[in-house]
DNA sequence: CCCCAGGCCGCGC
DNA sequence: GCGCGGCATGGG
């Protein structure tokens, strides 16, 4: 569908139609879930790191452990021995690496910019952009493996992080609520339908999908 | 037993 | 600049 003869206007319409179909199907997602509202920003930063290639269920356990050990602050994380921090966040997996990542991000102070975040060890593009969008309300569109899988099946050609991010940012309204919801909805779609082995029959956006049409033909 | 989960780093080429 | 192995727990 986003083949050669697809105008900029078509892309805009398609992206927004997909958004509305997903919203209608799954409802509002209200990402990012937070335990302690007073600690919202830092919780999102920590959660973004802990959830790297890890299910949110496991992250919730680690977050709970941090609170129960009175360890959910930059100060506590900086002062704690790294081995102890690792034990506390163990359920989130990759716990030795992630303990180091938490200490690295806790060290960062002053103005937050994309460039500065990306320079922190353990923060790649997705984690960086999730932090900017969900913790700081800065309008950057977050791309993840799910988004890439979905748009690959839809028929889009350029799927690397920067190209996909550009596609969204140039074709949907620059609105943090839409950015937040859209990313969350794509996640929901990937988990429920556009899985590794997809379930196209009930997919809410199959009408736009190259892969889905071929898959449903027979 | 297998595969997967809201990635990222370090390495070799 | 890209591909690949390593990192690790918990759930289906």
Count of alpha/pi helices = 12
Distance between the termini: 20 Å
The largest sheet is:
none
| Reported CATH architecture of the largest domain | Orthogonal Bundle
Q: Could you name the ranges where pLDDT drops below 50 across 5 or more consecutive residues?
A: none
CATH class of the largest domain: Mainly Alpha
Sequence of secondary-structure elements: HHHHHHHHHHHH
> How helical, in percent, are the residues?
55-70%
| Overall domain count | 2
Look at the helices and sheets and give the structural class: mainly alpha
Instruction: Please give the number of β-strands.
Output: 0
Mean pLDDT: 94
CATH fold-level topology of the largest domain = Endonuclease Iii, domain 2
Radius of gyration: 19 Å
The CATH fourth-level homologous superfamily of the largest domain: Helix-hairpin-Helix base-excision DNA repair enzymes (C-terminal)
């Amino acid at each position: 569908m986003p083949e050669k003869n697809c105008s900029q206007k078509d892309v805009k319409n398609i992206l927004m139609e997909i958004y509305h179909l997903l919203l209608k199907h799954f409802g509002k997602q209200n990402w990012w879930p937070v335990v302690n509202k007073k600690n919202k920003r830092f919780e999102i930063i920590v959660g973004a790191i802990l959830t790297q290639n890890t299910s949110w269920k496991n992250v919730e356990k680690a977050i709970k452990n941090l609170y129960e050990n009175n360890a959910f602050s930059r100060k506590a994380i900086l002062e704690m021995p790294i081995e102890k921090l690792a034990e506390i966040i163990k359920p989130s997996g990759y716990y030795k690496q992630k303990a180091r990542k938490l200490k690295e991000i806790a060290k960062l102070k002053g103005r937050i910019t994309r460039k500065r975040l990306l320079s922190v060890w353990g923060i790649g593009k997705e984690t960086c952009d999730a932090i900017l969008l969900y913790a700081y309300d800065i309008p950057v569109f977050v791309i993840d493996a799910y988004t890439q899988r979905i748009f690959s099946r839809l028929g889009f050609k350029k799927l690397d992080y920067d190209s996909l991010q550009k596609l969204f940012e140039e074709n949907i309204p620059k609105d943090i609520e839409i950015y937040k919801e859209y990313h969350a909805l794509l996640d929901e779609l990937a988990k429920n339908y556009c899985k590794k082995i997809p379930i196209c029959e009930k997919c809410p956006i199959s009408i736009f999908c190259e892969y889905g049409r071929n898959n449903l033909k027979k």
